[in-house]
Amino acid sequence: MLISTSGNSGNILKAAESARSKGAYIIGFTGKDGGKLKDVVDECLIVPSSNTPRIQEMHAFLGHTYCEWIEKALVQK
Question: N or C: which end of the chain has fewer CB within 10 A?
Answer without folding.
Answer: C
